């Protein structure tokens, strides 16, 4: 079956959420359920669990898995879902996709955990070769086979692994349903150093290359497929996606998040950086230019912004910056002192679609029950 209900959430450490926010997670699942059933798809970023080994990135290490097992046990918020992990070698980054059992299960030829693997999956799905669609024959390093987690842990864990190559930081997952392709990513932060600028540029290029490869494969196969891209994309598309912007008398927008004298806790080194890399990470011109190019080249729609071009309009009792228009919120201060980013917000998490008519989208909303004081900085997004 094709999924029809989705949740994406940067959970900022699943170990912490399992320990301190289990009740809120239950409420999240309940609030997103159209009936007694949980959402079809839940994608979590920054789970921060350690992989079993570099060759088994689809499996959390036993120590970490034991600490979160209550989430997946009978009566737990995720007990109706199969687990698909992609993890780093340390408790850093990492993603988890949860697919409801009613979807019928996922086989090895329906999931991939790198852009290379996803391209090969689609080629195999339609019986094509790289040469057929004009793609380079140059492949990445030989794939390392992963043992199925079902042979390592009890099948009662409902955890599934495939023999696919994984992104080394567990940032990419891909699922091919009967009529829908799902991309799940946790995009690396742009940072403030040349090496992080390059890392982000390389990532953006790999995603654009994959989208173009997918398009070429579908065109050659003569088929049309829906696409949904969900996750923490670590970019604010334009000024509306950050708080505390102002408009001067000439109609020009002054963004708080692009003015380093205002938004940085300490003076930055903007004088030593290209203007393309100045501003708070996620708000730099370089990131925005590449992201908007990806949207254009991939013919992708930003679903929430399509539905809310001027932000939410049903929360008139809240101030402009308090409204649920942002997925990241600054941590609250302590002992009566206001923190630097308290009251600020950014929209960094998205549902992007291709070939899905907007009239088919019933609702997209941000759910802010898990607030910064409880240890999380991002709001889940719910879509149906």
Write structural notes for this entry.
The chain has 384 residues and is α+β, with helices and mostly antiparallel strands. Helices cover 23% and strands 19% of the residues. The chain has eight helices and 18 strands. The chain has helices spanning 14-20, 22-31, 62-72, 115-125, 194-221, 260-263, 285-297, 303-307, and strands at 6-10, 41-45, 51-53, 56-60, 81-86, 95-100, 111-112, 172-176, 180-186, 226-232, 246-247, 253-254, 301-302, 328-329, 345-346, 349-354, 364-366, 381-383. Strands 5-6-2-1-18-17 form a six-stranded mixed sheet. A hairpin with an 8-residue loop joins β5 (81-86) and β6. The protein is globular and about 60 Å long. Residues 139-157, 159-163 and 372-376 have low confidence and may be disordered.
Strand runs, count: 18
Give the rounded overall mean pLDDT.
86
Helix content: 10-25%
Structural class designation: alpha+beta
- Low confidence ranges: 139-157, 159-163, 372-376
Read across the widest sheet, the strand sequence of neighbours is 5-6-2-1-18-17
> How many helices?
8
Oligomer: single chain
- Proportion of residues in extended strands: 15-25%
Radius of gyration: 21 Å
Which word captures the global form?
globular
Distance between the termini: 15 Å
Summarize the main sheet.
6 strands, mixed
Secondary-structure element sequence? Answer: EHHEEEHEEEHEEHEEEHHEHEEEEE
């Amino acid at each position: 079956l094709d999924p029809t209900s989705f949740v994406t959430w940067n959970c900022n450490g699943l170990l912490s959420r399992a320990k301190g926010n289990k009740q809120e997670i239950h409420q999240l699942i309940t609030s997103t359920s159209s009936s007694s059933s949980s959402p079809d798809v839940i994608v979590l970023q920054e789970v921060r669990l350690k992989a079993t080994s570099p060759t088994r990135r689809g499996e959390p290490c036993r120590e970490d898995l034991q600490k979160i097992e209550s989430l997946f046990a009978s009566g737990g918020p995720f007990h109706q879902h199969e687990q698909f992990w992609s993890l780093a070698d340390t408790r850093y980054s990492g993603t988890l996709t949860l697919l409801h059992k009613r979807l019928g299960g996922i086989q090895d030829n329906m999931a991939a955990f790198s852009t290379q693997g996803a391209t090969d999956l689609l080629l195999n799905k339609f019986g094509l070769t790289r040469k057929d669609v004009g793609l380079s024959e140059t492949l990445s390093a030989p794939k390392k086979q992963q043992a199925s987690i079902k042979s390592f842990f009890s099948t009662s864990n409902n955890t599934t692994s495939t023999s696919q190559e994984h992104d080394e930081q567990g940032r990419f997952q891909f699922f091919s349903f009967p009529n829908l392709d799902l991309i799940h990513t946790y995009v690396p932060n742009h940072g403030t150093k040349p090496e992080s600028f390059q890392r982000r540029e390389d990532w953006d290029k790999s995603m654009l290359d994959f989208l173009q490869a997918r398009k070429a494969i579908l065109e050659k196969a003569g088929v049309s497929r829906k696409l949904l891209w969900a996750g923490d994309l670590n970019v604010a598309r334009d000024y509306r996606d950050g708080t505390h912007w102002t408009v001067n008398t000439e109609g020009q927008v002054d963004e708080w998040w692009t003015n380093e004298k205002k938004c940085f806790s300490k003076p930055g080194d903007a004088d030593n950086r290209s203007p393309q890399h100045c501003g708070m990470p996620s708000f730099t011109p370089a990131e925005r230019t590449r992201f908007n190019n990806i949207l254009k080249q991939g013919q992708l729609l930003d679903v929430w912004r399509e539905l809310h071009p001027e932000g939410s309009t049903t929360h008139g009792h809240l101030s402009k910056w308090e409204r649920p228009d942002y997925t990241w919120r600054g941590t609250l201060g302590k002992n009566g002192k206001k923190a630097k980013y308290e009251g600020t917000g950014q929209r960094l998490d998205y549902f992007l679609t291709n070939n899905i008519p907007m009239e088919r989208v019933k609702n997209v909303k941000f759910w802010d029950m898990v607030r910064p004081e409880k240890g999380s900085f991002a709001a889940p997004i719910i879509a149906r």
